[in-house]
Amino acid sequence: MAGKKIPQNLDCKSESHDKHMCYIISQGYHLSNPDEYDALVKDAEFKCRHCGRRAKSLDNLCEPFRL
Ligand SMILES: [Zn+2]
Ligand SMILES: [Zn+2]
After folding, report:
1. Is 13 left (phi over 0), alpha (psi -120 to 50) or beta?
2. Are the beta carbons of 54 and 37 closer than 8 angstroms?
3. Residues lining ligand 1 (ion), CB within 5 A?
4. What single-letter DSSP state applies at residue 2?
5. Which tens digits make up the pLDDT trace of 1-12?
């Protein structure tokens, strides 16, 4: 089996987990949509307690806390 696993929060209960950074990154969103991805992380104000990803909006994180 090749390829490295990209961690995401499989325990996330949010209905919008498909918008969360760890999920979209695991789907390769940052590679297929680099500009949109940049917009989500630019001037990040929040960080996910679970995966450590940063985002400008808390809507894009599983367990956000303000930086
Ligand atoms: Zn999530
Ligand atoms: Zn996360």
Report:
1. alpha
2. no
3. 9, 12, 14, 17, 20, 62
4. -
5. 445 666 678 889
Q: Which ligand is nearest to the CA of 14?
A: 1
Q: Which residues surround ligand 2, an ion (CB under 5 A)?
A: 9, 22, 48, 50-51, 62
* Domain extents in the chain: 26-66
Query: Which CA distances in Å does 5 have to 8, 35, 43?
Result: 9, 23, 27
- pLDDT tens digits along 36-48: 999 999 999 999 9
Coil, helix or strand at residue 29: helix
Specify the pairing of strand 64-66 against strand 54-55: unpaired
